[in-house]
Write a sequence for this structure.
């Protein structure tokens, strides 16, 4: 799906757009209260365990928002880690693809990709602002391989990242 195709009003993309566009601008961290609802919707519809928005700042990947399977929380909003070693940075700079159907072979091959929790299927896309700045990423993953994930899901994630970038752009425009 591209952004130019007409959208069926019942699709996930329309629900995401409604949540992100129909809320007040200028909220906390350049994104507003709609983001947690969008993340929950994405996680539920794609049957993933973790979905989050990260911001790249000061050489760190800072988790701004996260939605996770209850009882299996592994990411905490406000926490950070070195950007260069993150999967997010590797997706942005092309060292990892946006869709990894089964992460286990990559983790066996490259010890630097190992995490303290299992990653089965992983999707990630940059959040790129109008001026070309990469704000961060929108990522999701499951703890085990999710055979239902397809390129269509990556396109959904990209669509949501584009809407999130628009929200940030508007908020930053109001602040200047």
């Amino acid at each position: 799906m591209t952004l130019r195709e007409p959208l069926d009003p019942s699709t996930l993309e329309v629900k995401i757009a409604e949540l992100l566009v129909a809320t007040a601008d200028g909220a906390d961290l350049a994104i507003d209260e709609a983001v947690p609802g969008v993340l929950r919707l994405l996680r539920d519809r794609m049957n993933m365990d973790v979905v989050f928005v990260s911001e790249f700042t000061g050489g760190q990947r800072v988790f701004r928002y996260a939605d996770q399977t209850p009882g299996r929380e592994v990411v905490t909003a406000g926490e950070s880690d070195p950007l260069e070693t993150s999967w997010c940075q590797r997706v942005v700079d092309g060292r990892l693809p946006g869709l990894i159907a089964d992460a286990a072979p990559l983790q066996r091959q490259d010890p630097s990709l190992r995490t303290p929790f299992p990653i089965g299927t992983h999707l990630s896309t940059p959040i790129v602002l109008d001026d070309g700045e990469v704000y961060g990423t929108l990522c999701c993953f499951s703890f085990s391989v999710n055979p239902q994930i397809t390129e269509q899901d990556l396109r959904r994630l990209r669509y949501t990242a584009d809407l999130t970038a628009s929200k940030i752009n508007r908020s930053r425009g109001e602040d200047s």
In short: The mean pLDDT is 85.
